[in-house]
Structures
1.
Amino acid sequence: MTSRVVIRSAVGDDADGVAAVRRAVYSYKVMSPAATRHMITVSAPKERFLALVAESGGELVAWGSAGLNIWTSEPGQSHTSIYVHPDHRKQGIGSALADRLHQHLSEVGAVRTRAFVHPDGLEFARNLGYDGTRQMHYAGVDPRALPDQPPTPDGIELVTMDQLDPRQAYTADSIASLDEPGDSPIDSIDYDRWVEEIWNGPAVDKSLSVAALAGDEVACFTAVETDSDRAWSGMTGTIPSYRGRGLAKLVKSVALRRCAEAGITAAYTSNDDENGPMLAINNWLGYRRVQTELGLLRPLGS
Ligand SMILES: CC(C)(COP(=O)(O)OP(=O)(O)OC[C@H]1O[C@@H](n2cnc3c(N)ncnc32)[C@H](O)[C@@H]1OP(=O)(O)O)[C@@H](O)C(=O)NCCC(=O)NCCS
């Protein structure tokens, strides 16, 4: 790494620079500067989140973060994320960030970390000890061109999420998340953390997010995050007793229409290759694949 490059802890005021690098690397992983600031500044103490940035000649050119996975009951699970602006690669910045992050994770008791990489980053990741075969598909749709909206079944009321009590939304999210494919089960979502990080965070636009209510119970919901004219699907979930009735298709149809009315021209999502139902729903909505990333794991020493 050249002497012009400085690695330091990220601070809230880096949000615009981090969001710009993120957009240059992943046009489809939508995260607004406000949500980026929240990610840098708000995390659970037990996550031991470390966020780093690299500057070259005073310009922010890379991001690296790592923390313990606090949404699972499996001990020692963690996540790592590194991205370097395309104009600043092959200078050792990614490796320097990885060294710092792996060391931090080992110090805070992680036994394994997970990262997603572009196919062109596979060799870099393998050289750092990552391996695995999971695939994550990213896809996008223009919400101004959607199939006809399905009818709303009897007994179901559609509401925007700003009309919900957080407990209602939390219950549906935590139950549906149990069945989301992944390396570790999402089975330990603490309500207060969820409120602070998700419900009260700036990422989700509750006026565009839609829930299907059966009485007082959220049967199905879809959470929308935005950054000016782009949107991201935060999470779509149907509680098990209401699955297979077209509710996820319906709430996403309604939410994407609301996005189009709000000026969104591209909506993106990510789905694990094993998530047959969600891939079927998104294919039906007209999502087209823009990227596949590889989900990799790396053991960590103590
Ligand atoms: C994915 C999920 C939201 C679907 O909810 P749902 O309300 O049952 O979905 P719908 O009834 O609207 O549509 C399901 C579609 O998947 C299809 N499907 C169901 N199982 C499938 C499978 N194993 N493989 C392929 N398609 C499948 C259904 O046939 C249906 O498509 P069709 O109408 O064209 O026939 C729900 O299963 C869930 O909450 N899963 C756990 C959370 C999760 O993974 N969320 C997505 C995170 S990216």
2.
Amino acid sequence: METYKFDKSMELFKKATTLIPSGIYGHESPAILVPGSFPYYAERGQGSHYWDIDGNEFIDYICAYGPMVLGYNHPKVEAAVSEQSKKGNCFNHPGPVMVELAEKLVNLVSGMDWSVFAKNGSDVTSWSIQVAREHTGRSKVLMVSGAYHGAHAWCTPGHAGLIAEDRSNVHLFTWNDESSFHQQIEKYRGEIAAVIMTPYHHPAFGDSIMPADGWWQTIQKTCNEEEIVLIVDDVRAGFRLDPRGSHVYFGFEPDLVCFCKAIGNTHPLSACMGKDKFKNDASKVFLTGSYWNSSVPMAAACAVLDVMAEENSVKIMMDMGEKLMKGLEDLAKTHGLQVKISGPYSIPFMRFANEDNFLRNQLFCAEVTKRGSFFHPHHNWFLSSAHTEDDINKTLEHADAAYKIVKDEFGS
Ligand SMILES: Cc1ncc(COP(=O)(O)O)c(C=O)c1O
């Protein structure tokens, strides 16, 4: 099997580093992947596939790190986008589509009575904390150690450019560890405005960890008793576990929920939704951005929600993810390799069980990617409802070849 070359990607990246600090930044930075084994620049996408600037075609299991959920260039979503684009996108006022979208979301997402919109996940996770502070008159925030809530100063995993005060009101506890949670509750009793958590733990460079039995019930009960606002950051998992919100999937009731990624099927939009009792305080917390009222992404999101309901997208993603992950697990055994699968099937993750440095996974994901299926070695993967059985079968062929290389290089 001929493997891909990335010459144009490398060349353009070299030029980019002269014009753009670090060339490509954030989680898309090539610095965190095996150099020369992954594409750096995308050209176009269709369905579950995309093409890089070297003309290589990939079956995509990162889905733009989540925003692609129904397939690139989805006909119904793009029809809604082009209809709205013809009328215009950004005006002195929002378009009526903003009210249409808010109504659809309120009817869909369980327990939520209102919605606001922004562009990125970080916009709404940060804003939701301000709402909690306004509502409670308290300053402190509890979050899970290793959780990602965005790139703003209070939560960025980066270290540069920060001052101690950025984090001085943010305190950590351990996922699924009730005593670590209660310790923080007791230490800061009466000062905690919000507990912000993802619906399950999906750290980079680690296995995804589902909530232990009773975990969410403990969190919710304690937040209710202590009058702390419970915020769910559903930016990554939202609309991939249950269209009514991941809190429905795990059986609990948050106060505020943040969405982004899947909601616009690649069109930039995020949302924060909340219960009625926070609406008044939410209306006091300043919220705006130059493009935040744009109609085109909102028209896209209306179409996304319709398509998801029509085709039962979550079930397709779960079924395709299950086929992929069970196939990878079985194939690994035939090569005498041990893999650990974690996370829900629509947002799965895999690593080699007998190492903790990801070196095998880097080689494995690079070799799979060079054959035409984009896998990431230390970030969870994403399925879309555009993935087909044929895609999965092809990917398992790519994985078969890659497992052989891993076995030759590292042994069992
Ligand atoms: C759970 C979670 N919260 C927040 C964010 C931040 O979203 P954005 O990158 O759109 O600001 C992300 C992004 O990956 C995320 O996965």
